Amino acid sequence: MIRRFLMWLFHCSHLKYKVNNRTRVGKWILLDVTFAGCPNGRKYLLYYKDVPLVLEPHFGYTNSPVARFTPTLAGWRIALDFMQGHPR
């Protein structure tokens, strides 16, 4: 169990990522991000106002996204609908 966690920790670095696309609607920012070395490494992350310097795709951290969406065309459209329907 510990060995599996350590392998995940060193192969799935949240410090190694590429932002494939960035869309802003009002103060909402939607990112299409690929995290290197992670299974299912592609994520759609939604932030409000600011994007942190270091991206963290999981919730519960200070730099957590407001929401995540399925990394598909349908997921991207749902995220855009959310952003347009919740202006701030």
How is this structure best summarized?
With 88 residues, the protein is α+β, with helices and mostly antiparallel strands.
Would you kindly provide a written description of the structure presented here, covering whatever features stand out?
The protein has 88 residues and is an alpha+beta fold. The protein has one domain (2-85). It has two helices and four strands. A hairpin with a 2-residue loop joins strand 1 and strand 2. The longest helix is centred in the last third of the chain and has 13 residues, at 73-85. The termini are far apart. The mean pLDDT is 81.
Output the keywords:
2 helices, alpha+beta, 4-stranded antiparallel sheet
Show the helix and strand layout.
Layout: H1 2-11, E1 17-25, E2 28-35, E3 42-48, E4 67-69, H2 73-85
Antiparallel strand pairs: 1-2, 2-3, 3-4
